[in-house]
Every structure is written in structure tokens, then in C-alpha cells.
Design a protein that fits this description.
The chain is mostly helical. The protein has three domains: about 230 residues, Rhopdopsin 7-helix transmembrane proteins; about 60 residues, no CATH class; about 60 residues. The chain is built from 13 helices and no strands. Helix 3 packs parallel to helix 5, helix 4 packs antiparallel against helix 5 and helix 6 runs antiparallel to helix 7.
Length: about 375
């Protein structure tokens, strides 16, 4: 009934990375933050990806003859279409929160967001109530437009970024740009296939090149997205990610030692000796726990250099957050009363003194400041 599938496994790995990062980012973020929005987007992206037909690759031809299989396919179609519509609804507001440029700022407007949500819901029902050449084409055209717009917006944000935000914009452009390019191509090809009469919403034989492109968009982009954009939006996000890397490395080392010793003895010697070896492995782990912890800390330090959980580092990150927010406001040609009130609230939340805030603003307004170049 079940069989192995290389491409199916490829997609499952992409799904696992997507959802694992979503969980990590949810745990290390605060409500309403860009990280929290991205975690939700990653959950929806994983649902949309895996419901395309990759799971069906693990089902044998004989298994597809069972009575339950048509209902399974229909459920996949509903889930995949829901994921498409959810991506359409969630992605533009996320771009507005993450990039904060002239191109994306309209999507921060609550009325526009509500219009997008309503349009996405209408497209969901049109998909099932109209022929593919109408409902599906409308949905896929909108998705292709959104992903191509996101690609252009990320490149534009990179080109116009000042010195303070250029690294973040570059990471965003590479990470999101790769995923946007891959998914934009896939939905454009789907429109073409509909008019050729070759398209199925869920393809039980999702082994073509276009399906590899679809999974690759998530597989290669998600780690870059998580690190590149979120590290500069929350002043302590990198500390929390470093802690996660350290704990994951320690857990992996412990599991590896126990598995190698116990399983190796079980296979090479006997079951009884294998059980004894398992106890021996546990003792070794306890004995070498301190060195393992130091090893995990070194791995985390290499992955996240210059990141120390000290009062000085936390103060530095807070100043950077305020500096970036102030630079964004100054780029618009002056700070309005509303923006000034928001900056004061941010300053008080971060615990930055008024004198330090004034010094940052004076420096940014000086003739040599990168935002004035």
C-alpha cells in the first residue's frame, strides 16, 4: 500500500523545516511582531506545499484503488486551495510589516487588509463553484502577481536601503526572492496547464521538474528567511535562536552517543550486551555532560557570533532597534506628530533615555549620515 519516493521525501523535508522553524519563531517572538506573522505564514506555506500531491507519491497504485482514495484526493484539493487563499491573504500584510517601504506600505492599511481577506475568501468559493478556467485561473493569477510583486518589492527595498538596514534588506531579497521566484513560476505554469487541459489541483504523480521547483522554493529559502529577516526586528531574537541552537546541538549529541553505542553493540554482539551497552552509553553521557555542553556552546557561538546574553549586548540591541525605527521615519522627509508619539512610546518601551535618543537623532540628521546620502 505504501512505497518509497525520493521526491516525496524531498517535499517532506521541506515541510519539516518549514514547520520546525515556525515553531521556533513562534516561541521566541512576541505577539504582533514580524516573527509571529512569519511563523503563521510558514505554517500555511507548509500546508499548501505538502497538499499538492507529494503524499500520494508514497501510496502504491494498488492503494489508490481503495474506496477511500477519491475522498482523500478531494480533501487534499480543499486543503491545498485553502492554503493558496490563506497565502494570498497573509503574504501582502506580512510584506508591509517586514519591509516597510513605499511599495508595501499600502498593505499595512487595515481597510486594504480586510479587502484582501474578503477577496481571498471569495476566490476560495469561486474555485469550487466555477470551472477551472475561471475560478482556478483567477486564484493563480492573483498568486503569481503577489509572488512577483514580493520579488520586486524585496529587490527595491534592498536598493533603497540605508547603511543601517542594507544587510537586512539583502538577506530578505535573497531568501524571499528565491521562494517568490520558484512559486511564481509554478503558478504561472499551472495557468498554462489549465488552458492545455493538463492540470490537476492535486497530482498523484507529482514527480515533474515543476514540483521539484515548488518544494525547492521552501526547502532552500526558509532557513535564510528565518535568520535574515527576524534577527534585525527583535532585539533579543538572536539570543533566543542561539539558545535553541545550543540546546538542539546538545540533544543531538546525547542521542547520537546513546544510539551509536547501544545499537552498535546490539547488532555486532547480542541483544543482552546491547542493553548493557545502552546503560554504559547513559553513564558516558552523564560523565561527559559538561564537555558536551561546552561543545554545544561553541557550535552556537560559531552559528551566531558576537551574541552574548549580557546587559551590554541587550542595551546595544535595543539601541539598534530604536535607531532603525528612527532612520525609517527620517527617510520620509520629516517626523510627523503621530510618528513622534510612536517613537517616544518605543523609546520608553526599550528603556532608552531621552538624551541617548536625542543623540541618535542628531547623528542621523548630520550631513554625513547614510540616510541623507
Amino acid at each position: 500500500m505504501f512505497q518509497a519516493s525520493g521526491i516525496g521525501f524531498y517535499a517532506v523535508v521541506a515541510l519539516a523545516m518549514c514547520w520546525a522553524l515556525a515553531i521556533v519563531l513562534y516561541r521566541v517572538s512576541t505577539p504582533g511582531s514580524v516573527a509571529r506573522k512569519l511563523s503563521l505564514l510558514l505554517v500555511v506555506e507548509g500546508i499548501t506545499l505538502i497538499s499538492t500531491g507529494y503524499i500520494d507519491l508514497f501510496i502504491t497504485p494498488a492503494g489508490r484503488e481503495h474506496d477511500w482514495y477519491p475522498a482523500w484526493i478531494q480533501a487534499e484539493v480543499i486543503i491545498h486551495t485553502f492554503g493558496d487563499c490563506a497565502m494570498l491573504a497573509l503574504y501582502p500584510p506580512f510584506l508591509a510589516a517586514a519591509l516597510q517601504t513605499k511599495l508595501t506600505r499600502p498593505f499595512a492599511n487595515i481597510q486594504i487588509q480586510i479587502a484582501i481577506y474578503v477577496a481571498s475568501g471569495v476566490l476560495f468559493f469561486l474555485f469550487f463553484l466555477t470551472p477551472l478556467w475561471l475560478g482556478a485561473v483567477l486564484l493563480y493569477v492573483m498568486l503569481a502577481l503577489v509572488f512577483n510583486f514580493a520579488l520586486i518589492a524585496s529587490i527595491h527595498a534592498w536598493l533603497v536601503a540605508n547603511e543601517l538596514t542594507r544587510a537586512r534588506a539583502r538577506s530578505f531579497a535573497f531568501a524571499f526572492g528565491f521562494r517568490d521566484l520558484c512559486w511564481g513560476i509554478v503558478y504561472t505554469v499551472a495557468i498554462y496547464w489549465i488552458y492545455l487541459g493538463l492540470y490537476d489541483v492535486v497530482d498523484p504523480d507529482a514527480t515533474g521538474f515543476i514540483y521539484i521547483v515548488y518544494a525547492s522554493g521552501t526547502l532552500f529559502a526558509v532557513p535564510l528567511i528565518a535568520y535574515g529577516i527576524l534577527r534585525t526586528h527583535l532585539f533579543d531574537i538572536d539570543l533566543r535562536i542561539q539558545w535553541t541552537i545550543k540546546q538542539s546541538t546538545l540533544a543531538a549529541a546525547v542521542v547520537a552517543i546513546v544510539f551509536l553505542i547501544s545499537e552498535g553493540a546490539d547488532r555486532l554482539l547480542s541483544q543482552e550486551l546491547g542493553n548493557l551497552a545502552g546503560l554504559l552509553a547513559a553513564a558516558i553521557v552523564v560523565f561527559f555532560l559538561a564537555p558536551l555542553q561546552r561543545f554545544a556552546e561553541r557550535v552556537a557561538s560559531v552559528a551566531m557570533p558576537n551574541t552574548k546574553n549580557t546587559p551590554e549586548y541587550a542595551a546595544f540591541r535595543k539601541m539598534r532597534v530604536y535607531e532603525e525605527a528612527l532612520a525609517e521615519a527620517l527617510q520620509e522627509g520629516g517626523i510627523s506628530e503621530k510618528e513622534r508619539a510612536l517613537l517616544v512610546r518605543l523609546r520608553d518601551t526599550l528603556g532608552i533615555t531621552e538624551s541617548d535618543a536625542d543623540a541618535i537623532e542628531t547623528e542621523l540628521q548630520s550631513p554625513g549620515s547614510p540616510i541623507l546620502v
